[in-house]
């Protein structure tokens, strides 16, 4: 709390991009006056970009929804009325109950950005459906999938890379305007330590790639082939931590081997939709 009357500072997290920087929000009479970086936050150490500072515009945007809306006109007419949260929950509960009683797999839903994928996955499993997707299906799905199968969730939900312990860092096509503050600080930490190496895999040698110890100018669209080749070499050299794969990843899950069918490459599941293991 500030010394000035009616002025307070709230500590929270910035959601203007995937960085999840710590911020201090200054309020006067309950309204946001300005936003600054939190120097005590481990991700950004007080640094805040223009997007983070502009969070006040998002908070007070006239287009922001402040209560549930119920459609009262024909679909596409744009006619809605505000309803209470209790009424909205009652409507959703009744509709979901009807679906679950008939066939849970009939439920399919899509969540927007900044929705916890770990939570939606848990809800889907409990409800009885695997027909769900999120913003990550179109943006950063590769990182989200890797995070879910290794640390239990996407990296922006459960923390940043361990820069101080990293010895070999590979960056695939990260743009300078996305996840900028933590990446810049992390690269600085790596390059300041002896015995580390930073490799940038990017078709263009600019920004982050320009300061890398090694730049791999990969052909666009061949990232998967390149990573697959790396995995193959690691397998040949027996440099794989099998115990970790067995305990903490989906490595033991069986995969359908049926070329030419729509199921080829998908996980084998039982009648309840649960994955089958080797």
Overview of this protein structure:
The chain is of the alpha/beta class. The protein has nine helices and ten strands. The chain has helices spanning 50-53, 55-59, 85-102, 117-127, 141-150, 155-158, 180-191, 223-236, 242-248, and strands at 7-13, 22-28, 31-37, 69-71, 80-82, 109-111, 132-134, 168-172, 197-201, 214-216. A hairpin with an 8-residue loop joins strand 1 and strand 2 (22-28). 12% of the residues are buried.
The proportion of residues in beta strands is 15-25%
Helix content estimate? 25-40%
> Cα-atom Rg, whole angstroms?
23 Å
Largest sheet, spatial ordering of strands: 1-2-3
Class inferred from helices and paired strands: alpha/beta
Number of helices: 9
SSE inventory with pairings:
Elements: E1 7-13, E2 22-28, E3 31-37, H1 50-53, H2 55-59, E4 69-71, E5 80-82, H3 85-102, E6 109-111, H4 117-127, E7 132-134, H5 141-150, H6 155-158, E8 168-172, H7 180-191, E9 197-201, E10 214-216, H8 223-236, H9 242-248
Parallel strand pairs: 6-7, 8-9, 9-10
Antiparallel strand pairs: 1-2, 2-3, 4-5
From the structure above, extract its key features.
17% strand, 278 residues, 9 helices, alpha/beta, Dimethylsulfoxide Reductase, domain 2, three-stranded antiparallel beta sheet, three-stranded parallel beta sheet, Phosphorylase Kinase, domain 1, 4 domains
